[in-house]
């Protein structure tokens, strides 16, 4: 058991997230401005800077957990937060590249309370702008021109490959009758853990940290990512649409084999078996797209009865604990450690 | 006028292309093997290594001009061709990433005489595998870990950004009534010139060439790319489907504002005006998808009558000449110069 750190309670999470957002925003905007029209406008729409008609907007650009982590990452290596900014922006670009492509592949029509890019600007723009953001991420890092920047780009590229592997696994799971809890965790580690891990190492690498330090920071980020995703999976079924910006029962509508579903199916017992039969019938049903709220609510209740909700809640706590433990493997300023700890706490209790 | 180089006539183009293919193939295959299933199989299908049922195939993997250029690029800097191999593979991965995404965006159903990936494996796999090949390209270069590899990756990233810009321009042109010849050339420079330019510099950069040498090699590659694209535009209208593997009048069916079309529209005169009226009506026509062969043949005849075919043929020759001229700005072994010259000659006379 790690002794409690009283400094954690004094961390202002909102201010920490806002610092990440504020310091990375101008660099992110300048990067997006490099894109040829109409990709610059499509990207600006995606980030919430303009609306579908091209008018300035002050949209929800996401929680901005990754930029906050990238700046703390630089500070963990004893550098100024400014050193982490290109890393923060590069990770944010890769994250948004994946959102643009995943929303199209998954047929998601809403994100951050707004129509998704493919819905407003068509599939071709979603593909193109996603590609462009991925390329921009590498460009931004590589034009720094240092050995550290090369190492940072390599880590980002590895994380991006895992992220793509994870999306491939996620898609393949939707067509499979059974997925084990282990397979689901591997998928989520690729899809969410790898890029969060990179966010936590990239600032340190840009600040000159060695590979061992970067790897240990990545261990914290990876397990933080798994905790983050477990919470996301809970919100994907039981989240409040007003908070999440997604439809009710969002993940069930998409037949996602997320952690609560997979854990419920693995649990055994009457609710688990009934759920298994229902989901099997759903996979072959032609009426699935016209299912009522009640039909999804019934499936959610079975998942809960079979223990999938409780297991996933506990899993988030387990991954949170492993993440915090990893933090102790790196020598860093105590204030930075307190802030990273507080961010991990925030990720587990968030409602959106 | 550059004096003729008698060594050019003795270059065996088929052997040069085969060398590029043979030396890069094992590295390309090993890279693709890193992908998580089913992306590895989807990529293998795209490259023609297996058929749609997963059986081994010996498909047409393309002309392989880029790998041949990347190996010569290393030799131009005095290095062995082996030094250029990771560059050859990285460029080939980026090229194929763009083919996978472009075929989907453009709705192209055939490539290299076979159904395209999105047609066989669905749009999601085309997006995912494209993304994965792009990431692999960077991974392959960056894991070399040298300063030169970082510089090579930066050049490849810049080229990829231009390639994406070019595809964005190409798509936007399809919805516009008029496109100038200059706009078309800019688009083609981005879409084709930039990556060919990178193929010609990447081996040299990996071999330790300075930026000035790399830039001059890129000038050759860029104009070679424009010559290549001019020929592609001619083949896209008048090419033999048995050779190109595409439909008859392929670019006309897609309403592509390619060079012959744009030049014909800019030429003025009766044929040019009639063509303009027809294409304007086509853009609003609901029957376009059911047009007969004769209707496309008539449009092709008007393009030719207005001078678009002849202008594009001459443009290929002009760009070829500029490319050859640029070659003389780099000090390199005469045999390599002869091979690069012969490759430029080949690009202009090819039938596929």
Automatic annotation (TrEMBL), chains A, B:
Going by the UniProt record, its keywords in alphabetical order are: Magnesium, Metal-binding, Transferase
What PROSITE patterns does this protein map onto?
POLYPRENYL_SYNTHASE_1
Q: Does the entry feature the keyword Chloroplast, yes or no?
A: no
Signal peptide range in chain numbering: none
> Which GO BP annotation is one of this protein's?
isoprenoid biosynthetic process
Q: Could you state a single Gene Ontology molecular function term?
A: prenyltransferase activity
- Similarity field: Belongs to the FPP/GGPP synthase family.
Q: Which PANTHER family has this protein been placed in?
A: (2E,6E)-FARNESYL DIPHOSPHATE SYNTHASE, GERANYLGERANYL PYROPHOSPHATE SYNTHASE
Please state what the protein is called: Dimethylallyltransferase
Instruction: Specify the species.
Output: Streptomyces finlayi
């Amino acid at each position: 058991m790690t002794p409690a750190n009283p400094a954690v309670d004094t961390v202002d999470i909102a201010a920490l997230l806002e610092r990440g957002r504020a310091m990375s925003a101008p660099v992110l905007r300048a990067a997006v401005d490099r894109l040829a029209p109409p990709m610059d406008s499509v990207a600006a729409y995606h980030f919430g800077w303009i609306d579908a008609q091209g008018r300035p907007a002050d949209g929800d650009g996401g929680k901005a957990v990754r930029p906050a982590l990238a700046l703390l990452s630089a500070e963990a290596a004893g550098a100024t937060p400014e050193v982490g900014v290109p890393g923060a922006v590069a990770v944010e670009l890769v994250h948004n590249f994946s959102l643009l492509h995943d929303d199209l592949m998954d047929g998601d029509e809403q994100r951050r309370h707004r129509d998704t890019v493919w819905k407003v600007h068509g599939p071709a723009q979603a593909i193109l702008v996603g590609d462009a953001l991925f390329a921009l991420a590498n460009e931004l890092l590589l034009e720094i021109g240092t050995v550290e920047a090369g190492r940072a780009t390599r880590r980002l590229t590895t994380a991006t490959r895992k992220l793509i592997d994870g999306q491939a696994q996620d898609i393949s799971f939707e067509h499979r009758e059974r997925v084990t809890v282990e397979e689901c965790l591997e998928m989520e580690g690729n899809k969410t853990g790898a890029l969060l891990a990179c966010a936590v190492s990239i600032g340190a690498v840009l600040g000159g940290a060695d590979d061992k330090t970067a790897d240990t920071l990545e261990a914290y980020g990876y397990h933080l990512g798994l905790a983050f995703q477990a919470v996301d999976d809970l919100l994907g079924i039981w989240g409040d649409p007003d908070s999440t910006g997604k439809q009710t029962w969002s993940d069930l509508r998409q037949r996602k084999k997320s952690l609560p579903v997979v854990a419920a199916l693995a649990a055994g017992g009457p609710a688990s078996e009934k759920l298994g039969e229902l989901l099997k019938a759903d996979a072959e049903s032609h009426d699935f797209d016209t299912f009522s709220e009640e039909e999804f609510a019934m499936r959610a209740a079975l998942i809960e009865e079979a223990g999938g909700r409780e297991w996933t809640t506990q899993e988030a706590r387990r991954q949170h604990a492993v993440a915090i433990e990893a933090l102790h493997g790196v020598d860093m300023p105590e204030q930075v450690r307190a802030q990273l700890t507080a961010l991990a706490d925030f990720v587990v209790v968030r409602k959106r």
